[in-house]
Hints:
This protein folds into 2 domains: 3-124, 3-Layer(aba) Sandwich (Rossmann fold); 143-220, no CATH class. Helices cover 30% and strands 28% of the residues. It has 6 helices and 10 strands.
Amino acid sequence: MKAKVLMSWSSGKDSAWALYQLQQRTDVEVVGLFCTINQEFERVAMHGVRVALLQQQADSIGLPLELLPIPYPCSNEAYEAVMRDFVARAKAQQVEYFAFGDLFLPDVRQYREQKLAETGIKPIFPIWDIPTDELARTMIAQGVKTVLTCVDPKQVSAELAGREFNAELLADLPETADPCGENGEFHSFVFDGPMFRWPLKVQVGEVVTREGFVFADVLPVDG
């Protein structure tokens, strides 16, 4: 029997590619997605993606999506309380693994492992330690279509907000930036790729600066 996996879903390229790797495996079954959202703005924290677009992604993937609202601002204690409740529900549904799209930050991985250590649910990291220059180009070559929804102008140009993640964008990144934005240089929204059954129709709306970050509002296109 395949082990049940829930995918931590950010709406961005790394969680999407991690999901795609799991979709190729025969020993596990991804049974759903989960995503924390800012309950005041009804958007993915940091990514700034609308809940309606999250649901469109889940529909195209063909998996149920559980939204986990967190307050704004959110303390670490409040976040962990939300996650404890969710872990308990997942365990009751015989979920064995949570999957994450983390790439190389050891403190992030250790935090996830630590918090799940006594729960009976194990973390897995399908794309961990893949060189990010290689990973970025592989995703692009395999048809992953992504738009940058948030950039940190202290690390990369603010003009990258709203641009598609492609070879031209990679060439425009400064040498100090990670090609996948793993150090917080940017966050993204995936609208097409091999993990989807159909592409999403979106357009980039207003670009605003908020709390030191530049956000591009991605909007669904009717039809």
